[in-house]
Each structure stands twice: as C-alpha cells, then as structure tokens.
Design brief:
2 domains; about 150 residues; four-stranded antiparallel β-sheet; Alpha-Beta Plaits; about 15% helix; five-stranded mixed β-barrel
Length: about 150
Amino acid sequence: MTWTPEHMSDEHVRVLFKLDKEDEDYPPVDYERLWARRLDDGSFEIDNIPFFVRGISAGDVVAAQQENGEEVVFSELLRASGNSTLRIIVFDESHVADVRRRLQELGCSTELNVSKMLAVDVPAQVDLQVVRSWLMEQQSSGTLEFEDACIRHE
C-alpha cells in the first residue's frame, strides 16, 4: 500500500530518518520520512517500506523524539519485525508492473518511488531465498538490479 493523506489517522506520524551518504550522489536525499503508528508505550511501529533508510523494515518498532516542536526524529531501533527490505531498479519502465505482480505472488509488498524504483517488504514468513533467486535471475537477464537494504531473515 502506498500511503496518501486519506490513510492518515491520529495514530500515524511521519518519523524522520537522517541518511548517511554512501557516496557523493547516493542516496539522492539527506533524509527520509517513514509512516509509523504511535504505540501506547510512546514508541512507533514503521508502517511503510523504506526506500533509502538502511537497517529498518516495515513492522520494526523504533524510538523517536520530537525535535523543534515539529519533527519526530528516529533515535533507535527497539524491536526488529523479522521482515527484510530490498530495493530494486527496473531498467525498462514497461516491466515494473510485471515485477511487482511477481513479487506479490511470492508474498511480498512493494512501493513505487518515481517510475522504476521499488522498495520491497519480504515478510518474515516468506522464504527470502526464493525471492532473491528470482531477483538474481532477473538481474542476470538485465531486467533489473537489486540490493539488500535490511536483511532480517535467518
């Protein structure tokens, strides 16, 4: 699911994650905001798939502090969900729908950023090796390139 304003509720907030540059051009932004549900204990459960944040997956519970009276800023991971996150660039935009459909068949959720970049949530109960094997086949054929953003599967 892609979050839009009509999905927002009083229990959802956007948590800001400051990003470290891996090289001078990547990631292309300095921060990413992720939707999260505010939990009764004051922590936050991540409720969408990160595009650039490393080490965080959907369902993770994090601590965050309000800064400057506005922004809710990530401070630490409290509990890992067991889900893994992958990132994909599909080289030909006409293949994006097919890639998303196949990942859904494998039990994964995706979010689309711009026209060809996908963030993929691999739930803990899905066999990560099956997903990665299919992605490696696609990468070998030149359809896409993928990377691990947060691997929690054992």
